[in-house]
């Protein structure tokens, strides 16, 4: 275990009041994203946290031979899936995690999607043993989180005093959003030097800013999530079981020309197994994520620069890999 010098909490958004106190809640959402960049999202209808944790343990407790059936091609050349599916812990890396990632499938005869488009690869699913409805439950959870994210975007728009459904078209047809179940095993023995950070803390996921539009994170009652504060120090996010942690990524912040904050965060080793489920809410491939979106929404301010999400993020990935 480790000591954290300071902790932080975020504005709490009660989704059960999204209609009865809509304007007040909308202003609270925008204020939180303009300052903290993170929110707690409470009372999401039909989201079963206990069952979601069971889904994580059902999969990650299986032997590696089972996981290899849905492992990405990079680690199992016998498989064809490149971007979806299972990825294992990579030794000697500062990110000690394994995960299973999936998305909505696009229909086979969709002529608008190029065969080589990495964002619409079909998701592989493991063979089930009757103990747990893994695929069905996770697909249902995906839709719950998708609809929750859309509702939060409506609140953002109301809080910005722009048309309530202005963001919806970006996600209504073939969004690139993904859902991941994650397992962070503790370090065994001495961790590599690149996993040891200031104050002797050890990371299982190094510091980063999300590259998607919005993240809805289920972290159950596990600690370890830290956010970099305005003064450059690190603060642990208060545990809040039965709640989602929401933050925005580079894309949304960029569209708002930095008005809404995308914050650096990391995950610290807590000395025991940790599970988390992030939903990465992401626009469709050809959605307009151009800077100065508020100019487009209001007709005032700097000129809105139209740019598609897919080519933009591929360029970001290419530059990051150089």
UniProtKB/TrEMBL annotation:
Pfam families reported for this sequence: 2OG-FeII_Oxy (PF03171), DIOX_N (PF14226)
Species per Swiss-Prot/TrEMBL record: Dreissena polymorpha
Keywords carried by this UniProt record: Iron, Metal-binding, Oxidoreductase
Domain (Fe2OG dioxygenase) ranges: 174-283
Superkingdom classification of source: Eukaryota
Protein name according to UniProt: Fe2OG dioxygenase domain-containing protein
Family statement drawn from the similarity comment of this UniProt entry: Belongs to the iron/ascorbate-dependent oxidoreductase family.
GO MF entries: metal ion binding; oxidoreductase activity
